Amino acid sequence: MNLGINTERPTTERKALAINLDPRRYGSFAEIGAGQEVVRWFFRVGAAAGTIAKSMSAYDMSVSDAIYGECERYVCRKRLEDMLEHEHSLNLQRLRESRGDTTSFFAFADTVSARNFHGTNECHGWIGIRFQAHPRDQDSQIIMHVRMLDTENALQQEALGIVGVNLLYGAFFLNHEPDQLVESLLDNLSTRRIEIDMIEFSGIAFRHVDNRVMSLRLVQLGLSNAAMFSADGEVLQPSEVLYKKPILVERGSFRPLTHVNVDMLRAAQERFHAEADVEADEVVSLAEITMRNLQANGDIDLRDFLARVDVLAASGMTVLISNYFEYYRLAAYLARHTKKKIGITMGAASLCELFDEKYYTTLDGGILESFGRLFKNDLKLYIYPLLNRDTGELTTVDNLEVAPELRKLYRYLVDKGCIEQLDNHNPAHLGTFSREVLRLIQTGDDSWREHVPAGVAAVIEERAFFGYRRSAKGTQTKVSTLPVPLNAIPIMSSSVPV
């Protein structure tokens, strides 16, 4: 039997049987919250005695605490990691001496909140595996967070079992191809049933994996519509970061991050923190990049993506990669995680685009429906002025030109406070435009440094981002860069521009 993946996606039964028939794999299953849905597959297909050392559930909170230690929440990353550590350590302690030379041990765990009887809970879970890729190998680990979208408990359990088998199969047979591993996680499922909004690889088998790229991969493949990571590159689970927090978002290309980007966020933060219902120390500020922006020139250029992320990291920003190109969809996503105030800051040019009706032809209610969705949760837009360098005039909320038939709607939103002008901006930065800064970097004009923060300039120089190259004499020279497609799979696109 061929245990590797082939061009035809193997069924869940074939995957489970392939694992059972592999004499190297032996480990434990610990599942809490939706029944033993993953291990059931291995019992069902036969030959399970060669794979399963132990299978257990610790549904009672007191029992769970007694085994894995106390935890404030039972469906969370910490509980999952405690489960993996406990079960894998027991396997090694009990079995390593007797069969460690020929066995690659593993521990699989999940802690899940499936649909309750009344249908009132958030249906999600943490799933993970800690394993040895080879006998006596150092440990490797994959953990992920899933949202279960089926409306019936039985269907959620079924979907959880399938994605769990996919994770185990990927860890054992595709750990050398993490792109394929991620792509295989929804084999025999669909994005209508399961969303994977966080994945993290660690350990010896994944020492060359950049988890930021894997986060991008989730969004690119449609396994999730958004992914998030911190300034230090740590993959974040969005609902845990955003839960019950006021949120402020700046959308941009950040190619590169300029003084304007920094000043726009600073000015918006000052206004947002001053809102009566916002606690300043609770605010989560995000730099958002859309998939549409990343693929503006066709396939995603991986080097370009990492360059943008690294310059944002140099400024300490948390990054959100999203497939919510339409602002009202972004607003709905954020509102799913919090009831607190949401703010979005943008330039006057983007606000003008927002009022162009041609972008809302796919909505039955047109632009009125889009604005109803955008502002329904007390969301506010903070607008940064646009400088006309020919005339020296600023485009602001007060003089923005919109179509005559939309002027009353626009004025209503302004008067209601949904759209607010940022008059606390720094005029010194208004002449900076990121596309021009990028051109200066690529043509070897050292004046680009005047338009970006010092930390960003240092990162660009050190890592030769955005076409920067220093000659042997220490002066900048132009360099051409070739795009590096993330993969050969067609990238999803949005039909609605910003």
- Strand residue percentage: 15-25%
What is the count of distinct domains? 2
CATH topology heading of the largest domain: Maf protein
The mean pLDDT is 91
- N-end to C-end Cα span: 51 Å
Question: Helical residue percent?
Answer: 25-40%
Computed structural class: alpha/beta
* Largest beta sheet: strand ordering: 8-7-11-10-9-12-13-16
Structure, explained:
With 498 residues, the chain is an alpha/beta fold. The protein has 2 domains: 198 residues, CinA-like (Maf protein, Alpha-Beta Complex); 190 residues, Rossmann fold (3-Layer(aba) Sandwich). It is built from 17 helices and 18 strands. Helix 1 crosses helix 5, helix 5 runs antiparallel to helix 6 and helix 6 runs parallel beside helix 7. It is globular. The N and C termini lie far apart (51 Å). This is Nicotinate-nucleotide adenylyltransferase.
Give a quick precis of the structure.
It contains 17 helices and 18 strands. The chain is α/β, with parallel strands linked by helices and 498 residues long.
List keywords for this structure.
alpha/beta, Nicotinate-nucleotide adenylyltransferase, globular, 18 strands, 36% helix, disordered N terminus, Rossmann fold, six-stranded mixed beta sheet, Maf protein, 17 helices, 498 residues, eight-stranded mixed beta sheet
